[in-house]
Amino acid sequence: MNEAEQHQSNTVRGALFWIAIAFSCYQIWMASFHPLSSQVIRAIHVGFVLLMIFSLYPPMNGKSASWRALGWVLGIAGFLTGLYQWVFEADLTQRAGDLTQADWVVGVILAVLVFEAARRVMGWGLPLICGIFLLYALFGQHLPGMLAHRGYGVDQIVSTLSFGTEGFYGTPTYVSSTFIFLFILFGAFLEQAGMIKLFNDFAMGTVGHTRGGPAKVSVISSGLMGTINGSGVANVVTTGQFTIPLMKRFGYSPAFAGGVEATSSMGGQIMPPVMGAVAFIMAETINVPYLEIVQAAVIPAILYFVTAFWMVHLEAGRKGLVGLPKEECPNPWTAVRERWYLLIPLAGLVALLFSGFTPLFSGSVGLALTVILIFGAAVIGGVQGTPLRMLFWVLLGFACAGFLQFGVIAFFVVTLVLVALTYIRKVGADARALAIKALVEGARHALPVAIACALVGVIIGVINLTGVAAELGGHIIAIGRESLFLALLLTMLTCLVLGMGIPTIPNYIITSSLAAPVLLELGVPLIVSHMFVFYFGIMADLTPPVALACFAAAPIARETGLKISMQAIRVAIAGFIVPFMAVYSPALMLQSGTWVDTSWIVFKALVAIAMWGAGAIGFLFGPLNWAERIVAIGAASFLIVALPLTDEIGLGAVAVFIAWHAWRTRAQRAVAA
Question: Among candidates 619, 622, 584, which has minimal Cα distance to 601?
Answer without folding.
Answer: 584
